[in-house]
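Workshop exercise sheet. Pairs work together: one partner reads the sequence aloud, the other fills in the structure field after running the prediction. Swap roles for the next sheet.
Pair: D.N. / O.F.
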Amino acid sequence: MSNLLTPLARSEKKIDRLDDLYQFVKNHPFWNNSLFLACLRGELNRQDFIYIFSQYYLYSKNFTRYVAGIMANCDRDQFRAKLTQNLWEESGEEGGLSHAEIFRNFLKNSLLIGDLSEIEYEDFTQEFVDIYLKNSIQADPVSGSAWLSLGTEGIVSDMYQIIVEGMRKAGFQDIELEFFQIHIDCDDEHAATLTEMMCSYQDLPEWFETCLQATDRALTARAHFFECLYDRIVRGFNLSLVSTIKNRESLANQVTDISGLKSSTIQAGTKIYSNSTPHLNIEFAVERLVFPVTQVLDPRIVIIPAGKNNEKHRHAHETLLYILQGAGQVLIDHRLIDVATGDVVFIPRWCIHQSQNNGNLEMKILAVTDFGLTSTVLGNYDRQTRMNLR
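Structure field:
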């Protein structure tokens, strides 16, 4: 029956099939992996991202091998030529740093990973890279191009937008995110060339099924890798902390500018939560103070306008409140404590508490919590204990 279709009708059918593949990618379970959800909820800190990207570096530095594998198996000159040109442009030969060099600078300058050759890779990281090499080097042209286009390069922009959101919530500044912003903003020539190559084989039998299966395998492999990273972060936090303590080495050595350890040198805090509920007299905002080597403590600034209060809530982390400005009361379970500038109040774990500004000035409170520790045990428990958490 398909042989009776006009050339235009056959072309439209091909476009519909490609749209079906795009829709498959859009709805794939990959987008709900635990690492992405943690990024969107702001659960990860700078130390977590150091671990994530040190492991991701093994995948990144082998990227040209994936493309080279696809090129070697491609039987069409024009696509080999285009991919060669893409690699040449990405290498920075036309001026400027290559993408790989920008990423290495990010690892060294922002994450302070000194010698990249000394990174110890997890078994699951090596397995992930091996899977990529196998499905690039040993795959047929259709499967390989689908794997590296729809299942890999085509998701980069959306994937990095999620990761960047998590990094900003962890205190990264825009100047540190150049590598990711490049891939979010630009049209990726690799993805376009690989997709064009994939579509050039549309007349082959079972083309759609082959592309669908290769795309699914690529997304599933990456989802598994991300799940392993997240699991390692959650399970490995205590081991890493114990190791840091036992090594008796100063973490200040990881800070290039020691002034970053002084709160007054920190620019505007990272806003992590706010709420305005007039009928409950609730109005306040919470900002995170970002120090470069914090592992357990999570210092925050709570700002409450005159005559307002934050909500009654409770959480797993314990908190030390220092009143920077203003006066009022702090509710701890069913007891009220009068507070003024300079006072210190301790909030035990899981007690119901609330800060009330009864004065005429804006109340500012330094809240030092151990959220960095407790969140690794319970995940983002704030979502169950806070109202309207964004």
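Discussion prompt: The mean pLDDT is 83. What would you look at next?
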